Amino acid sequence: MRFELFKYFCVWFYEAAQPVAFSLQRLYTMLKAPIIGIERHRIGRDGDGVTTLVAFHGCPLKCRYCLNPQCHDGNRQWKEITPQQLLETVAIDNLYFLATGGGITFGGGEPAMRSEFIEEFCKIAPQQWNITLETSLHVARSHVERLLPYIDSYIVDMKETHLPTYRSYTRRSNRMVLGNLRWLARQGKAGNVEIRLPLIPSFNNDDMRADSRRLLSGMGFTRFDEFTYIVPQPEGRAAAKMPEGNHQ
């Protein structure tokens, strides 16, 4: 009798587990994101230790001097990968990540638009890896909330808090960005955020940047990266005097 009960239990457990296993397999197989590049062995550029930058296609902003214009290129067929495929690709540097306190930096484009992908990647990646989000924060709050448990460090490309200047440079409002920054501060994450405040010729000046810093300091943020864009020639693209990274 006990053997029959045990056999019944095994059959029941197997059948009950199948939908769950199938759902997870289906999720990791079907959830894909377009990638414009994966760059290994970045040291002191966009996160602690040795990092690998994973850059997503797509961005809600239309910045005048966009440093990654390919993120808007809709004519090219970008490679799409699953969280599992990404893990298999970047895991080659696991020892570097563990030895230096490094890990993965998600950039773009705008990585927060791929919050579901990043969430699923973080669920299967080693917990010791440091996860950095290099973002404009110009996304719906739901994306920021979804990512909160998984992001160790944020690099926020604020550009400018003065609304008309921000709109002139990006063609968008910055109200969503400031709202997300205030929300992160309320979650106790101000110390995990570095905010980039560029000086952009013909768009802002030192006084305006100082005003931005005062406003953001009042929210509780203390880490700022200030640098100057070098305006390109008409045929060129932007460069900037800044630590090398994936600036928006």
Average pLDDT confidence is 87
How would a textbook summarize the main sheet? 9 strands, mixed
Strand order of the largest sheet: 3-1-2-4-5-6-7-8-9
- Number of DSSP-assigned strands: 9
Q: Which class best fits the helix and strand makeup?
A: alpha/beta
Radius of gyration: 21 Å
Low-confidence stretches: 19-28, 242-248
| Straight-line N-to-C gap | 67 Å
Supply database-style keywords.
single chain, 248 residues, alpha/beta, 8 helices, 9 strands, 38% helix, disordered C terminus
Note down, in words, how this protein is organized.
By secondary structure, the protein is an alpha/beta fold. Helices cover 38% and strands 22% of the residues. The protein contains 8 helices and 9 strands. It has a 9-stranded mixed beta sheet with strand order 3-1-2-4-5-6-7-8-9. α2 crosses α4 and α4 packs parallel to α5. The longest helix is centred in the first third of the chain and has 29 residues. It is globular. The N and C termini lie far apart (67 Å).
Q: Can you give me a brief rundown of this structure?
A:
This protein is α/β, with parallel strands linked by helices. 38% of the residues lie in helices and 22% in strands.
What's the structural blueprint in terms of helices and strands?
Blueprint: H1 2-30, E1 33-43, E2 50-56, E3 79-81, H2 83-90, H3 94-100, E4 103-107, H4 115-124, E5 130-135, H5 141-147, E6 153-157, H6 163-170, H7 175-186, E7 193-199, H8 206-218, E8 223-230, E9 239-241
Parallel strand pairs: 2-4, 4-5, 5-6, 6-7, 7-8
Antiparallel strand pairs: 1-2, 1-3, 8-9
